[in-house]
Amino acid sequence: MNAPTERDVKKLFALSLNQCAFPDCLSPVFGLSEEMIGEICHIKARNPKGPRYDSAQTDAERHAFENLILLCRNHHKIVDDDPKKYTVDSLKQIKREHERNGGNELTQHDAQLARKLLDSLLDTIRVESAVINLTATGRNITQVVGDYHHYETPKKPKIVIVPPAGAVSPAELHQIQLWIESLVANTTGMMQDRAFGMWRNRFKRRFKLAKTEQLMSADMPEVEAWYRQQLVILKRGLKTKAPDVWRNARYSAIHAAMGKMGVDKLAYYAELSTRLKMKKVITSLTELTKTDLERAYTMVLRDARES
To answer: Which parts of the chain register pLDDT below 50?
Structure first.
């Protein structure tokens, strides 16, 4: 095996809660426009010249879940540039701390995003094995192995929109992402990709934005009010008309609230079981009846508001 399995990448993404694992980093793995900000990082490098490479590892161990961590591009570079500071043990500790509050339940859309992560890594591996980058006479030249032609790599202009002073913070952007995901989860009769596009466009039109990053922090209460209004409209009759969608929406909201509180999943489930006077300890939300899931949802969100 010369790459991680799709199953392991899906597990990695689920446990990440769409956030870079580096302590106190608020960068999402995927932004609101689904731009890929995060990358799959190998704790022990996959190449002999890479940081923390272990020649004793097998290929299977090298690409296994235990050797993978999701980081934003900035922190991926930071940990790889300083392997003496960011050792194998320290990165494994970062991974444990970050993943302890995650869950293994993925929506269909989450699974598609996880696949994008894997495809990006596979593209990198293919490029490394098939392309030699050359620098000649001050130009960027790319030579493809087996191809005698040389192609000058065109330089693409980079358009940067600078957020205004007082614009939303990374934490507020993450909150908007969660609200959009909640609206998508409660949208029926539409493929998830299309629903994401629809809600992102509705949000930008409502607040007259070219980029979400241009939103002013002072407008967050108005954004929350808009979100709650749309959610009420969506949820009318959802519990009976589309029970699976309703359940997934509750799962997502509970996991997001637990992530915000930073609680240990199993310990918190045990506490919930006691407070809700359940006959047995909750081990998975999927085992709850509709009534018990609604009770758990109400209690978890209340805890999150009060934390």
So the answer is: 131-137, 139, 141-153
